[in-house]
Amino acid sequence: MSYFIPFSSSPSAPSALADRRAKKPVQASPVLAGFLSAAVLAALLAVADQLIDSWAEGHLLLAWVMLWSALFAGLALLARPLRLASVATALAIQSWLAARARARHAQVGWEFALQDPRMRQELRAAHARSAER
């Protein structure tokens, strides 16, 4: 009876693949960092709009001038910290997703190993060897 085994014949092949994936550095996503920066700036714009709306009752031109000057001042003052924070957040999200993918890959490999009689036999033998020590 033959079994389909998606892994290589060597027992270290799945772990070597997981090690290679684990050593690959996580790169920052400029798109995600840009979206996070845009979200923070949109929130800043909404707060500035609420403040100016309560200050200027009917002076619409003055309100818009103040709103845009507040927006540009916020951009000038917070550009670097927002970029650094958004890159750090993007890296944290990507690292978390990569860790979840590695855990899911390990779980699939483990479930496959438990269903294959030859792999179960190898696991029992390894467990017996570790219990002897």
In short:
This protein has 133 residues and is an all-alpha fold. It is built from 4 helices and no strands.
How would you explain this protein's 3D organization?
The protein has 133 residues and is mainly alpha-helical. 82% of the residues lie in helices and 0% in strands. It is built from 4 helices and no strands. The protein has helices spanning 13-23, 30-55, 60-115, 117-132. Helix 1 (13-23) packs antiparallel against helix 3 (60-115) and helix 2 (30-55) runs antiparallel to helix 3.
What is the fold's blueprint, element by element?
Elements: H1 13-23, H2 30-55, H3 60-115, H4 117-132
- Overall pLDDT confidence: 76
Number of domains: 1
The total count of helices amounts to 4
Count of extended strands:
0
Helical/strand content category: mainly alpha
Largest sheet: none
The coarse silhouette is: rod-shaped
Distance between the termini: 35 Å
Low-confidence stretches: 1-5
Strand content: under 5%
Helix content: over 70%
CA radius of gyration: 27 Å
User: What is the element string, with H for helices and E for strands?
Assistant: HHHH
Features:
mainly alpha; 133 residues; rod-shaped; 4 helices; 82% helix; disordered N terminus
